[in-house]
Write a structure and sequence with these properties.
The complex is a heterodimer.
Chain A: H1 7-13, H2 19-41, H3 73-109, H4 111-126, H5 129-140, H6 144-155, H7 157-171, H8 174-181, H9 186-222, H10 234-245, H11 251-278, H12 280-286
Helix pairs in contact in A: 2-3, 2-11, 3-4, 3-6, 3-7, 3-9, 3-10, 3-11, 5-6, 6-9, 7-9, 8-9, 9-10, 9-11, 10-11
Chain B: H1 7-12, H2 14-42, H3 47-52, H4 61-71, H5 77-89, E1 95-96, E2 101-102, H6 103-138, H7 143-156, H8 160-174, H9 193-226, H10 230-237, H11 242-279, H12 285-294, H13 298-326
Antiparallel strand pairs in B: 1-2
Classes of the chains: A mainly alpha, B mainly alpha.
């Protein structure tokens, strides 16, 4: 029980560009490259079933074994990751557009509009978002569009808050006053002077959202409420694998999940570093 | 600095806060229910055919029209909405089309198990995260701190149902220590508490582990920060032992914001419970919600979503009150 401040250890811990970043870059690059190149390297007929080779354990021929319909789990997981990442990225973009618009209106108009919009944001934030997502998908019937709508409508809140608070803090800066006294109109100030400052934050928030969007899609697909069953997505595969799990073929569920965890964890580590660099308060601590 | 406020005066504003929160909660619930109703109305599903089930193929068009007329599903939307809300307020939550029984009896039979699952998991998370987070903060930068944070970040990116399946594969199937699912043994005739407890070990632990990273990281950062506070340094300077400083001074200041976190994190916990119940085939609200979603059962889905919203809003109010009771600097009547 020595000194409580521990400055030396903290400095060592906070050193930027650590091993973690390198590992995350390598993992993410490897996984994404494999997922992108999968159709070229391992062409696969999604509906091909080989009932003579069901639930084979991992071997050199099938690195992660086969599922209960005789399909190679490793290759299919890569296909699934492609779908999950694509759906997640598109949904995060849609959410960012919704949130960005709401935040921009709230932050630039202000007054009762701002209060009303922020009240809406608080309301949606208080709802259990998985339940809300399930409700949206159930009412629109499970489909690709419904899944994207379900993710976008439950995930736009953070971007709305970020854009609004950035605009509020930028609004009173001298360069904005200068632009206004120079005769710039409301729209010009917003598009030429404010938005360029907001964009890096918005881009970061959107990237931070991608893993959450992927998890949401995976959860819906796992519940059988997401993408159509014939389409390999990570959630669908984990759901399918449940049948094999009870017979001892754990790989059919666990391997696709592991791939998802590796990809989203690497993405989260990298975006975390990116955020540390954008935030001057944390940056100061980095070079403590 | 304001003059110190006595406990009694502090809670004098509680009524005001409750009233103000209700003023917000009513529009929130109204807006939520309207949004849900609009979505339900936009749904391509015909409630009359849904009610008839397979018989819809043989039922004559007149009969279906009769069902629609009885239910008033062709009335203008505001009329339907008003009728639905009126029934809700009178305690009639409607008829579940997927379970073919009143929504109230579905909720009554199942809400208890979900509450038990969520409540036990929350208690476990709170105790574990305060202990682990404080330990990590005390030796921050040490191996325990680094390992704990690495694990926390890793767990944060694992879907809860995937953790659940992995736990089943290891503890139920490979080792055979615990049951893989269900609430009781198949042969059981009633719900014996010991049997239920054994079946709940895995689900509760999985739910707690999946929610823990948030809380652990929060406690760790909050305690680490408060260890640099003046009053903690002063306590150190007076030569108090490390344990006393840690638990008596640093932890106490750090725990206040924790209350708020519990309130805001409750929706996440509910979502986790839905998934855990599905993985472990528990007869709670989560499993029934999924069933209702697959069958596009609007009355049941709307009721569970609204009921959870009410619970979450109430919990937020309670955390606000607890915060005010615990922190002399917060005054409710501001």
């Amino acid at each position: 029980m020595t000194d409580l401040a521990l400055p030396a250890r903290v400095r060592r811990l906070r050193r930027p560009g650590s091993v973690g970043t390198t590992v995350a870059v390598v993992v993410l690059a490897g996984v994404v490259a494999a997922a992108l190149l999968a159709p070229i390297l391992w062409p696969l007929d999604q509906s091909a079933v080989d009932l003579s080779r069901t639930r084979l354990a991992p071997s050199p021929e099938h690195l992660a074994g086969t599922d209960d319909l005789g399909r190679d789990v490793a290759v299919r997981s890569l296909y699934g990751l492609r779908v999950s990442l694509l759906v997640g990225a598109v949904a995060a973009l849609v959410a960012a557009v919704i949130g960005g618009l709401v935040g921009a209106v709230a932050g630039s108009v202000g007054g009762w509009v701002d209060r009303a919009l922020m009240r809406v944001v608080d309301t949606v934030a208080a709802l259990p978002h998985l339940l809300l997502g399930i409700f949206i998908v159930a009412m629109l019937r499970p489909s690709l569009g419904a899944v994207i709508a379900s993710i976008a409508l439950t995930h736009w809140l953070s971007t709305a808050r970020i854009v609004r608070s950035e605009l509020l803090s930028l609004r009173n800066r001298p360069f904005v006053d200068a632009a206004i006294s120079g005769g710039a109109g409301r729209v010009r100030v917003l598009t030429r002077h404010l938005l360029p400052h907001v964009l890096p934050r918005l881009a970061l928030a959107t990237t931070l959202m991608v893993p959450h969007a992927v998890w949401h899609e995976t959860a819906l697909s796992f519940l059988g409420l997401g993408l159509p069953p014939h389409l390999a997505s990570i959630g669908n595969m984990i759901n399918d694998g449940q049948r094999s799990l009870l017979t001892g073929a754990w790989w059919a569920s666990i391997v696709p999940g592991l791939l998802l965890v590796a990809a989203t964890l690497a993405l989260a580590v990298l975006t975390g570093r990116w955020r540390d660099r954008l935030d001057p308060r944390v940056r100061a601590e980095l070079h403590l | 600095m304001t003059a110190p406020v006595t406990g009694r005066r502090r809670l004098a504003g509680a009524g005001v806060v409750v009233r103000r929160r209700l003023l917000v909660a009513v529009p929130v619930l109204a807006a939520t229910s309207m949004g849900m109703f609009a979505l339900g109305a936009a749904s391509p599903i015909d409630p009359a055919q849904q009610y008839a089930g397979a018989a819809a193929f043989t039922t004559s068009e007149e009969n279906l029209a009769q069902i629609r007329a009885n239910w008033g599903v062709d009335d203008p939307l505001p009329v339907q909405y008003a009728r639905w809300i009126g029934n809700l307020l009178r305690g009639d939550l409607g008829w579940s089309t997927s379970r073919h029984e009143p929504v109230t009896s579905v909720l009554a039979a199942r809400a208890g198990w979900t509450l038990l699952l969520v409540g036990t998991a929350l208690a476990l998370v709170l105790v574990a995260s305060v202990l682990l987070g404080t330990l990590a903060a005390y030796r921050r930068g040490g191996w325990f701190d680094r390992a704990l944070r690495a694990v926390a970040y890793a767990v944060q990116s694992m879907p809860v149902f995937w953790i659940g399946l992995a736990a089943i594969a290891v503890f139920a199937l490979s080792l055979g220590w615990l049951p893989a699912g269900g609430l009781t043994d198949i042969t059981a005739t009633g719900t014996d508490p010991a049997d239920v407890a054994r079946h709940l070990v895995l689900p509760v632990t999985v739910l707690a582990i999946s929610q823990a990273p948030w809380f652990v990281l929060f406690v760790r950062d909050a305690v680490a920060e408060s260890l640099r506070d003046d009053h903690v340094l002063a306590a150190r300077a007076r030569g108090l032992p490390g344990r006393v400083v840690l638990f008596g001074h640093a932890l106490r200041t750090a725990l206040l914001p924790f209350l708020t976190l519990v309130g805001t994190h409750l929706p996440e916990l509910v979502g986790g419970a839905v998934l855990v119940e599905t993985v472990f085939s528990l007869p709670g609200l989560g499993a029934v919600t999924v069933e209702a979603a697959l069958g596009a059962d609007f009355p049941l889905l709307a009721a569970t979503t609204l009921a959870t919203t009410v619970v979450v809003l109430t919990a937020n109010l309670l955390t606000d009150l607890a915060y005010a009771a615990a922190d002399p600097r917060v005054r409710l009547d501001d």
